[in-house]
Amino acid sequence: MLCLSSKVLRTRELRAFSLTYDARARFSSAPAWETLCVRASSSNTPDTGSRQVGRSAASTLDGHKRIGGSSTPAETTTGGKEKKRAAPFKLPSAGEHTLTMSTTPPPVPSKDSPSWTDPVWASPMEASRKIFCNRSLNMKSIKAVGFDMDYTLAQYKEETFETLAYDETIKKLVDHYNYPKCLKNFKFNSRYVVRGLVIDKKRGNLIKADRHKYVKIAFHGFRQLTADERKSIYGKGDMSDTFVGVNFANIDTLFSLAETYLFCQLVELKDANPGLYLADKEYFDLYTDVRRAVDWCHRDGSLKVAIAKNPAKFIHADPSLAPMLTMLRTSGRSTFIVTNSMWDYTNVVMNFLIGNKTGKDIDHQWLKYFDVVIVGSAKPKFYSDDANNLFHVDLSTGLLQNTDNGSPMVQLDAALKEDPAAPLMPDIDSTEGPAMARVFQGGGYRILHSMLRIKSGSEVLYAGDHIYGDILRAKKSIGWRTLLLVPELEKEMAIMRQPHMQSELARFVQLRHQWQSLDDQFQRLSWHLKHTSGMDPDQRSALGVELGRLSLERDQCHRQHRAILQAHHEAFHPVWGQLMLCGNQSSHFAHQIQRFACLYTSHIGNLRGYSPEKSYRTGSDAMPHF
Prior knowledge:
Layout: H1 6-10, E1 60-61, E2 64-67, E3 70-73, E4 75-76, E5 82-83, E6 131-133, E7 137-138, E8 144-147, H2 158-176, E9 198-200, E10 205-209, E11 215-220, E12 223-224, H3 227-234, E13 248-250, H4 257-272, H5 283-299, H6 302-309, H7 311-314, H8 321-330, E14 334-338, H9 343-353, E15 372-375, E16 390-393, E17 400-404, E18 407-408, H10 412-415, E19 438-442, H11 445-452, E20 460-464, H12 467-478, E21 481-485, H13 488-496, H14 499-531, H15 537-572, E22 581-582, E23 585-586, H16 588-596, E24 599-601, E25 615-616
Parallel strand pairs: 8-14, 8-20, 14-15, 15-19, 20-21, 21-24
Antiparallel strand pairs: 1-2, 2-3, 4-5, 6-24, 7-25, 9-10, 9-13, 10-11, 11-12, 16-17, 16-19, 17-18, 22-23
Helix pairs in contact: 2-4, 2-5, 4-5, 14-15
């Protein structure tokens, strides 16, 4: 752990448009997190004179703009008008800040973590390969195991995939939403935003809360709010239930990292250039436009075409995926996919993951590892009784064919042919299982249960990465057992296993008890000094001296306690800290995992290390008095 002075630990101010790490804490140089277009001089720019809560202070000196301690000269065009230029951007060099990357390559069985099917007497398990249990689950009761695809079966390389999404979103904003062209100079840093944060769309803030929804870290754009600012906004009693309202967006999927970072940049751009950029936009409008642009990118093919051309650039290869699926199917369980991605993209991704096939080599052989594949499922609507119509996907053409709740309906053009007898697909009630999965689009959980002969939602284990769309709704609405993918666990557990971490945490607990003990002594003597009558002056003077000594010791102990806690969090992420903690409390994200995920693990391949018949057992719940 990095043991820094309390002065360094408290230095987290983000000046102008750059967020830097203290050189002693993390980097040999202090890189800017973001690139923003800036106003070089205020002479030709209207300024309202007002300052929003959380707005960065920036100085304008002789046509230069201060950005993270450096100056950026203005460019001048004809007519005396200034041409805005983006600030220089510097990403961390290779090897810097690698511990905050969310995704890592899939695990490969080894002697330390063998596959369950390997010929060994016991299976030692690396900590990062473990599956953790919140609610006891006996796999003998599970008849079907289902999977989401994106960020579950397929782990994306966020530094390339999210950068692609970020760049394409900016193109949409500039070309179709009339955003300033200087946005094309923005750069994305995949290491800044983490899951578990909440976007306050109305105020332009990004916040982290604990399990009680108490906000402990808040940023406006890239400027950290002071404690007084934060408490004045989020310290009100009526804020506890608003993190799910229309003015808030929870970052509970890795797909949201790029759009959140872009939103923060736009907030900074708007505040730094009042009346010049985005003057007609509220913070809420900025978020809405970003979301619409992101959805457009998913619809128009700008993302999937790039990925289809070179899947290895954007997706981690996973040679252990097919053996894991084979193990589950050999155990007698059905396997299925329910994904919001459409068939064409699903086929490309799954061919790469199972068989490493791309381009002209793509086929449908991967379907033999599943019983049913449902694309375009429109989760979370899929979990409701008001589900969409179900269509069968013709694998040869990609066209959709009508079904009667999954059973075939002969098409009129086929009936007019000489030989219309061949069915479009096996009937839903057929007793013979298909050699390959049947592929459908849309539908709902009831039809899926009929296909797999599931009588109760508790007979299904579903794995996904989205805490709301995959886990919460599946569990609350239809009673599926759930497995949440948390790829960040691997890197966080690597930090926790560092030799000095346990000793630092022990010191933290010791200081906490010592601080509380000193405070109790101080309060007792203060009470005695205030309420004891007949005390002679010498005794009163001695007690006053003792109180002063206790006060100094208590405050010093408290500062050391806070410094260790701060250093602990900065070891995981210098801004947002440990994913599962917020201060001393479980984070809001961790609380959701505890409530809705029966199991959670870092990678879907970790299932290979456990028997398909395993009974997962949770530990005893702990309360403060236990």
